[in-house]
Amino acid sequence: MKVHGDVLSIATQRVLTCLYEKELDFELVPVDIRTGAHKKQPFISLNPFGQVPAFEEGDMTLFESRAINLHIAHAYKDKGTQLIYDGKKMAIALVWMDVEAHQFDPAATKLGFELVVKPMIGGMVDAESVHENEAKLVQVLDIYEVRLAQSKYLGGDDFTLVDLHHLPCIHRLMGSQVKKLFDSRPHVNAWCADILARPAWLKVLAMQANH
Fold first, then answer.
1. If exposure means fewest CB atoms within 10 Å of the residue's CB, which of 28, 92, 135, 207 is most exposed?
2. pTM of the predicted structure, to 2 decimals
3. Are 66 and 113 in the same domain?
4. At which of 40, 62, 82 does a domain end?
5. Are the CB atoms for 6 and 185 separated by under 8 Å?
């Protein structure tokens, strides 16, 4: 099992966290996105869209982090943490997985770029983009607060891929002014504290630190 990616990439972090949750052995093949290695061969033969990560297992190659994680969770259902379920429970989880991908992630990713990445690389923060995406994130977190008052995790009472997929963006935003939006909602705040403390995620952070 090989993950071609960059430990600083949010999408790569999603897959690494899933592999650690499933207690699987894998090899990380570094792809330096700062030098544009993800837009060149040999990586482009693994993902024609030139985005990390790519995943290899035997003769199968996959890309798109959420699809990779669904494969891992299904193929290794009996290993490590159970991240997916059958029937009604899975249907509910899939709804919230879509919410993460289409409602939470776009705003959270843009805020992370403007408030964390840009200052690190000496870029100018786009205040209008920050304002616009903070408003979108507020709407999502208000809905999350209601949901998390009903269940411990977004997909139900068990930690699933739904929660895992949020981890990299939430961690990045905790180092910005947006942290207050999470802290001010008690159920969201408790959920963040819970998932950010998971051993699998801490292993990914250790990989970043070593990098």
1. 135
2. 0.95
3. no
4. 82
5. no
Encode 23-37: b = buried (16+ Cβ within 10 Å), e = exposed. Answer: eeebebeebebeeeb
Residue whose entry in the numeric block shows the structure tokens 């051993």: 199
Same-domain check for residues 73 and 94:
no
Residues 97 and 76 placed together within one structural domain of the fold? no
Nearest CA to 89 out of 147, 158, 150 is that of: 158
Q: Is-contact 72 19, C-beta < 8 A? A: yes
* Same domain (yes/no): 172, 97: yes
Give the number of residues written for the chain. Answer: 211
Residues 62 and 118 in one domain: no
Residue-wise pLDDT for 61-102, tens only, equals 999 999 999 999 999 999 999 999 989 999 999 999 999 999
What does pLDDT average to over the chain? Answer: 95
| Assigned token pair, 95 | 């709804």
Looking at the fold, whether 128 and 183 belong to one and the same domain comes out as yes
Residue 29 forms part of a structural domain: yes
Token pair of 104 as six digits: 């939470």
DSSP code for 123: P
pLDDT per position as a tens digit, 148-165: 999 999 999 999 999 999
Crossing angle, helix 161-173 and helix 10-21, to 10 degrees?
130
> How do beta strands 2-5 and 54-57 pair?
antiparallel
Range of the domain at 69: 2-82
